[in-house]
Design brief:
Layout (H helix, E strand, L loop, with lengths): L23 E5 L23 H11 L3 E5 L9 H9 L4 E5 L7 H10 L1 E7 L2 E2 L2 E2 L7 H13 L3 E5 L5 H9 L5 E3 L14 H11 L3 E4 L3 H4 L10 H10 L4 E2 L18 H11 L3 H16 L5
Parallel strand pairs: 1-2, 2-3, 3-4, 4-7, 7-8, 8-9, 9-10
Antiparallel strand pairs: 5-6
Helix pairs in contact: 6-8
Length: 298
């Protein structure tokens, strides 16, 4: 049995600024209803039900227009809950699916029609051990990459940035855009001069990769106001502001017992500090995700 995750906070710190039209939360998950969309039997955590309409409520509460749903590891390679959400809200949502080794062209085309624009690969390890069960690895991605390129998709990589020193060249050789989750899941204690984080910045600078300035709560577990994350965000924006998007990581799975589940309003308001001018926020919240996920012009 896996431990049940804590629910998101019931209260929301009000947004400190008005999101521009077309603003996008570029990383979130949905779960359930479990009677229709059961979780994988073998999983690392057990979330509560957080269906598509609850995510739409989350977007509305922050004043956001669009969202990107990512199939979570607790769902295995069953993308049905994400595909259902995309079909229910086609104007507002895009998706990232988890492929299986035998995923067919017909399935990829069906996913594309629903709004999928990339696949997620789980390479996240600490100390040589996988952190989460499920997900697919680099061998599946390498076999699939030519078909992703044909469809204009990208590969979303869940990886610890220090591993980019070794795996970066192999990932670049895929010939598809790369999106590195959550700033490479860097612990702030490693510092911005960590070779893996510098490798991530270099990938952005040459236009080979994007990243999501998301997961501040994961990088600095001590909690708000997350000021130790600021130098990492600044370095990524300095490397290439055209290759950066933002996500909340709603509903913040994998928090247990006495842990403090982050406040989505606080996470959103970090953008007022990281992107103090309206043009920079427009780029990261609107134009960059529109280009990456194929949303129409706002």
């Amino acid at each position: 049995m896996t431990r049940p995750c804590l629910p998101p906070q019931n209260t929301l710190t009000p947004p400190a600024f008005r999101a521009p039209a077309g603003a996008c939360d570029s990383h979130a998950h949905v779960f359930g209803p479990f009677a229709r969309f059961p979780l994988a039997e073998d999983r690392s955590y057990t979330p509560a039900e957080h269906p598509a309409n609850a995510f739409i409520g989350h977007l509305d509460a922050l004043g956001l227009t669009r969202g990107v749903l990512v199939t979570a590891s607790a769902s295995g390679s069953d993308n049905s809950v994400v595909l259902d959400a995309l079909r229910r809200y086609p104007a507002r949502l895009r998706g990232i699916a988890v492929p299986a080794a035998g995923t067919t062209d017909a399935e990829l085309d069906d996913w594309h029609d629903a709004g999928v624009r990339g696949v997620r690969i789980n390479l996240y390890q600490l100390g040589g051990h996988a952190v989460y069960r499920n997900g697919v690895g680099l061998d599946v991605l390498e076999a699939l990459a030519p078909r992703l390129a044909e469809r204009g998709w990208h590969a979303q990589i869940w990886i610890h940035a220090p591993d980019l020193v070794e795996l970066g060249p192999r990932l670049k050789a895929l010939g598809v855009p790369l999106v590195i989750d959550h700033m490479g899941r860097m612990a702030t204690s490693r510092g911005v001069d960590d070779p893996g984080f510098r490798a991530l910045c270099a990938l952005l600078a040459e236009g080979a990769a994007w990243t999501k300035i998301s997961g501040a709560d994961r990088l600095q577990p001590a909690g708000a106001p997350y000021r130790e994350v600021d130098p990492f965000v600044a370095a990524l924006l300095a490397a290439n502001p055209e290759q950066v998007v933002w996500g909340s990581d709603w509903p913040h799975i994998n928090y247990y017992e006495s842990a403090q589940v982050p406040d989505d309003g606080v996470l959103f308001n970090l953008l007022a500090r990281w992107l103090p001018d309206a043009a920079a926020r427009e780029r990261v919240l609107v134009s960059n995700p529109a280009r990456l996920y194929g949303f129409p012009a706002a």
